[in-house]
Amino acid sequence: MVTTATPPPPVGAGALLRSWREKRRLSQLELSTRVQVSTRHLSYVENGRSRPSPEMIMRLAEQLELPLRERNEVLLAGGYAPAYAQQRLDAPALALVADALRMVLDRHLPYPAVVLNRWWEMVDANAAVDALLDGVAAHLLEPPVNVLRLTLHPDGLAPRIVNLGQWRAHLLAQLRRRVELTDDAQLRALHAELSSYPGGADDPTPSPHQVVLPMVLRVGEHTLSMFTIAAALGTPADVTVDELVVESFYPADDATLRLLRAEQPPPPT
Q1: Which of 1, 3, 39, 207 has its CA 20 to 30 A from that of 195?
Q2: What top-level class would CATH report for the domain 92-263?
Q3: What CATH number should be reported for the domain whose range is 13-77?
Q4: C-alpha span between 36 and 52 (Å, rounded)
Q5: Contact, 33 vs 8, CB < 8 A?
Q6: Phi and psi dihedrals of 36, rounded to 5?
Q7: Percent of the chain whose pLDDT exceeds 90
Q8: Cβ(213)–Cβ(166) under 8 Å?
Q9: Where are the domains of the chain?
Q10: What is the pLDDT of residues 24-49, one digit of tens each?
Q11: 111 close to 251: Cβ distance less than 8 angstroms
């Protein structure tokens, strides 16, 4: 006789909100004060005795700093339609955003820059990135390319990163913070995978003379020292747009500045 497992009951909006409040280490009193409702009402919402309105869910989600994807999930759990669309970046509605991102990448030449999604998968990149990937194993370059895996994998950039322990610690700390923000199972699995890679002692402390922590990478006969600036769209109203980040690399010393300017073509006009 074949038996099938009974699926778990759906999680309601109140239980999700309680879970997120606990993840954010807020008491019911702290959250209710921020949202300007009574602690009793918040308690009723969390235990399912009171059904929250879409407006109440959005107010609570705002104070809990939920990303747009997670706000939609709470709305769906409450029986409401998602508030935020989720479209492919090549959808007509996102054409101007895609064009702006492409402009940022192109204008950043001769320095490398990439567009990443929520899971650090490469959405787009400028031509300067190609020079950094020489010698990377082909399986790490199969789409979707995960730049954290590509960087820390023994078949990726890791053997050429001079300060691997420092850079590894920096990347794992970023990933851990995003896991805490999103509670995303895919990101949690990625953190476990990357943490298992060899990489020396994880020490994110920069040297006393440094003002930023660079990634120091051997490329052919040269060594490049680069720091990064991450930028996100300021007013996203779409899940895809909310999760995009532009990671731009800049020279951290004069030698890298000269090398990058000499080896790359000027940006398009």
Answers
A1: 207
A2: alpha beta
A3: 1.10.260.40
A4: 14
A5: no
A6: 65, 50
A7: 87
A8: yes
A9: 13-77, 92-263
A10: 999 999 999 999 999 999 999 999 99
A11: yes
